[in-house]
Design a protein that fits this description.
The complex is a heterodimer of chains A (282) and B (343). Chain A is an alpha/beta fold and 282 residues long. Chain A is built from ten helices and six strands; from the N terminus they run αβββαβαββααααααα. Helices cover 29% and strands 21% of the residues of chain B. Classes of the chains: A alpha/beta (282), B alpha+beta (343).
């Protein structure tokens, strides 16, 4: 009986949302968390990031298919850090981001309290081991159109690929929404803002756009957890995540290193072994 | 206003655009790119889209390019050659399919750059541009033009305004002399209309505040805690400013070496952390709170004071583009409702 089965599913969803709100309220009441970061209903059918600092405010949390923007982006923000211990309602992509941020020593004192919803149950990932275990067993799944875009790009010749990016990047006006939406673009002084010397052309002309996006892809190679927030954020509709997704796939293939699954792993591209077989590295 | 009006069939409209392109005019019109709509130079009039609420990007880049070459310099053996790019000729262009709010925005944009320190290039580009706008038969929840001094059938800033009426026809309102000469150059295509009754064909956009109201509330809002809550989810990108048809802040960038290089004018945004940072390192707008306040204040309090218009036409682009759902309309309503007026 399909209708009944889907009703049961909807009911369980409702229950898991309530237990999520309850758990968030408990964290705030017990003062274990000063702020819980999650989603609430936004405008015009959208969801928006929501920062609950009181148990009452936790009643606004929602959790559904629309919750796609990577909330880990707020964990490294000064305004949030100032509030005190933070908790976050996390998708698998957010868990992987937290693990990656941890491996990059971005949590000085303790990890954020990470709440995940699985099989309609709310679980707290309390330590590095449980974060790592969850991250390893939960891949970040691409929507089907992204998988197809990756395949299409791989099938192109170098010239075709160049023309593809020339076309796409021509719409870039450097609003840096890709950078701002990315939880791994946490530098307070971005390379593009350095002007003595100027490494990257600031202007959003063809060369400047290529320089910026190539730089960003290289900085995220082996670090991007492939959440797709940059593409979602881009007001020009550029599928910008494809660059960092591919850069990270290459690192995974060449270095057998996967981003965001081990909170104490050395970084693929900024660490070395003294017994490396290549001489230049020593 | 008692402007002359005509009607035009869809077929004849396309023919008119085709003729303009053949005559060598560049026609910027809405085109679908992926899932979004953008103004693009038209090669084939069949590619122009008509079923859009609003384009993703505003047409302001036709007056204010995102990267504009100002001067170039090059050192030779005993001399330096300078090229002043501001002297170059601007070809005639047509902007087709801009919404009435866009045309209203461009007229405020031009007024801003004609006031005091005149920006010759922006005025020159406007002079070379003919604006043929399309009234809104549809709107969405992010539209709030009627709260910002515009409306779905506003003729302000357009040279011609087209309104889709019945039987696949458009009502054509001639707004300027430039619009009049377009019609007289293509007389065979246009039919005289007895009157310009278009209200029943226009989208209904309910006003949610008045420009006077919001400006008055903001005069006492500078230190209100409202900015802290409102800005917390802002991720500090410039998407809102760059899709905005009235945002006009820019930065001057020098590229090259001591021997050869360019000076460019590029778009800038008050949401960026570096926007107001001083050489000393001090930043008078240290967090997103002050930056978001600046964005709202500039549009709804400072520009009304200095230029007598709102720096917003309620096109809703920023709300549609924001990765964090900041929603300007909703925030304006909350200011009107929450901020007390101190007499």
């Amino acid at each position: 009986m399909m209708p009944q089965a889907s009703f049961g599913r909807a009911q369980r969803k409702e229950q898991s949302m309530q237990s999520l709100q309850q758990k968030a309220a408990e964290l705030l009441e017990s003062k274990r968390a000063a702020v819980v970061i999650g989603y609430a209903e936004g405008s015009d059918g959208r969801v928006r990031p929501h920062f609950a600092r009181t148990a009452d405010a936790a009643a606004a949390f929602v959790w559904d298919q629309r919750c796609k923007q990577n909330l880990a982006v707020y964990l490294t923000k000064t305004e949030i850090k100032k509030m005190g211990p933070a908790a976050v309602i996390a998708s698998p992509a957010v868990v992987r981001t937290i693990v990656q941020l941890a491996s990059e020593q971005q949590f000085a004192k303790s990890f954020p309290i990470t709440l995940v919803v699985e099989n309609d149950q709310v679980t707290e990932l309390a330590d590095a081991a449980s974060l790592d275990a969850f991250a390893v067993s939960h891949a970040v799944l691409f929507p089907p159109h992204v998988t197809k875009e990756i395949e299409d790009l791989a099938a192109m010749s170098v010239t075709e690929r160049f023309v593809f990016w020339q076309n796409e990047l021509s719409r870039c006006f450097k609003c840096y929404a890709c950078r701002s939406a990315c939880p791994l673009c946490y530098c307070t002084n971005c390379i593009t803002e350095s002007n003595q010397p100027q490494w990257v052309s600031v202007a959003p002309h063809a060369l400047g756009n290529f320089e910026w996006h190539i730089n960003r892809a290289m900085h995220l190679a082996g670090r991007c957890i492939q959440c797709g927030s940059c593409t979602l954020a881009c007001p020009a509709g550029i599928p910008i995540a494809l660059l960092t997704i591919e850069a990270t796939n290459i690192v995974e293939r060449e270095f057998k290193y996967q981003a965001g699954i081990k909170s104490d792993a050395p970084a693929a591209l900024s660490s070395f072994m003294v017994d490396d077989k290549e001489v230049f590295i020593r | 206003m008692n402007s002359p009006s005509y009607t035009l069939t869809h077929e004849r409209l396309l023919e008119f655009l085709r003729t303009s392109i053949s005559a060598g005019k560049r026609v910027h019109a809405p085109h679908r790119v992926g899932a979004k709509t953008f103004f693009r130079p038209t090669e084939d009039v069949g590619a122009i889209v008509f079923d859009y609420i609003q384009t993703a990007e505003s047409p302001k880049s036709l007056l204010f390019p995102k990267a504009e070459l100002l001067i170039s310099y090059k050192q030779t053996a005993n001399d330096v050659t300078m090229t002043d790019h501001l002297q170059k000729e601007i070809p005639e262009m047509i902007l087709f399919g801009s919404r009435p709010c866009d045309a209203a925005a461009l007229s405020r944009f031009v007024e801003f750059f004609a006031d005091g320190h005149t920006d010759a290039m922006i005025l020159k580009r406007r002079k070379a541009l003919t604006i043929i706008s399309m009234s809104c038969a549809k709107s969405d929840a992010d539209c709030f033009c009627t709260s910002c001094g515009s409306s779905p059938g506003d003729t302000t800033g357009s040279d011609l305004l087209l309104t889709p009426i019945k039987d696949g026809r458009y009502l054509v309102e001639v707004v300027t002399e430039k619009g009049e000469s377009l019609v007289s150059d293509n007389k065979a295509l246009f039919e005289k209309a007895p009157s310009a009754v278009k209200d029943s064909y226009l989208a209904r956009v309910e006003a949610v505040f008045t420009p006077e109201d919001i400006t008055k509330k903001l005069t006492t809002a500078f230190n209100d805690p409202i900015w802290n809550d409102a800005s917390l989810r802002c991720i500090g990108c410039g998407a809102c400013a760059y899709v905005c048809p009235t945002c006009s802040c820019f930065t001057i960038e020098d590229e090259g070496t001591a021997h050869a290089g360019d000076r460019l004018r590029c778009w800038d945004s008050c949401a960026f952390a570096l926007f107001t940072v001083h050489t000393s390192g001090h930043n008078p707008r240290p967090t997103q709170t002050e930056r978001w306040r600046q964005r709202v204040m500039h549009k709804f309090a400072y520009l009304p004071e200095t230029n007598h218009f709102l720096g917003c036409v309620g096109c809703g682009r920023c709300s549609r583009a924001c990765p964090a759902d900041m929603n300007l309309k909703e925030q304006m309503i909350s200011i009107v409702e929450r901020v007390p007026v101190i007499a």
